[in-house]
Write a structure and sequence with these properties.
Bound molecules: zinc ion
Helix content: 25-40%
Strand content: 15-25%
InterPro entries: HMA_dom (IPR006121), HMA_dom_sf (IPR036163)
Number of strands: 3
Radius of gyration: 13 Å
Pfam families: HMA (PF00403)
Shape: globular
Structural class: alpha+beta
CATH topology of one domain: Alpha-Beta Plaits
Protein name: Heavy-metal-associated domain-containing protein
Length: 81
């Protein structure tokens, strides 16, 4: 009973996304994360650049999805200065 946080399918994956800098990033990223296989829910901590995903998710797939959305680096690539 002390171990309620572990419920098999409800795994959590946290990915650091340093490029998550603006609101546009959050919206864009949310759209792509939703499409990743196995994602049941997710939350974005834009202030710290963290993406927390729940579900049976392959971290490699998640990173690939982020990369294709333009979040591979440490700054937003869709935003022109
Ligand atoms: Zn951005």
């Amino acid at each position: 009973m002390a171990d309620q946080s572990r419920q098999g399918a409800a795994e959590e994956t946290t990915v650091w996304v340093p490029a998550l800098l603006c609101r546009r990033c959050v919206r864009l990223l949310s759209r792509h994360v939703r499409d990743v296989t196995g994602v049941t829910s997710f939350e974005v901590d834009a202030a710290r650049g963290l993406l927390r995903v729940r579900g049976d998710v392959d971290a490699g797939h998640l990173r690939a999805a982020l990369a294709s959305a333009g979040f591979a680096g440490d700054r937003c690539e869709h935003r022109r200065p």
